[in-house]
Write a structure and sequence with these properties.
With 212 residues, the chain is mainly α. The protein has one domain. The chain contains 9 helices and 4 strands, in the order αββααααβααβαα. It has a two-stranded antiparallel sheet. A two-stranded parallel sheet has the order 3-4. A hairpin with a 5-residue loop joins β1 and β2.
Amino acid sequence: MTKILFIIFKRTIDVVGSLVLLILFSPIMLVTMILIKMGSNGPIFFKQKRVGKNSHEFWMYKFRSMYIGDNDKRLKENYPKLWKKYKESGWKLPMSEDPRITPIGKKIRSLTIDEFPQLINVLKGDMSLIGPRAYREEELREQEKKFPRTKKYIKIIRSAKPGITGVWQTSGRNDITFEDRAKMDAEYIQRQSFLGEISIIFKTPVSMLSRW
């Protein structure tokens, strides 16, 4: 019964919370849409397949922060050293070094505004407000090969809905390795509780404001 109540509680928080946040952030989102359109050619929104609950892939939405085109291919072919660093650093690069990101994109990423459209994914039920990171299938396979010890953690991560925020994003640690992220996400999934969810909800605004 407790598990059923928790599932109902979590989905209620997801629906109510995402609706409230979409309304609250609507002025910021409108300004962002205008700036993206003025800053570079291409669509306002970006979508990419990510791994969801039970390994079912879904389209995750973000505000576009990169130039249009196959940016990963461009990075791999034109910037081999950065591509190697990108893969070795857990599929991420410092924004100051990433040639794929537009000037407006760097700003909205630094303020986490690019992630606001994921609230739509939460409403649809693809994601939750709180959960493990929404990984790409290619990323999970590559990291599992690179860090064999994370295989058990990845299996647990695949069983849950990914979230916009989570335990490691609000941990106060700025540089977390993939191994640590995977372990923290897996432990969160196994220990989910009412108090744990509430704690992360209250920590998230503090974590976001620290970037502003």
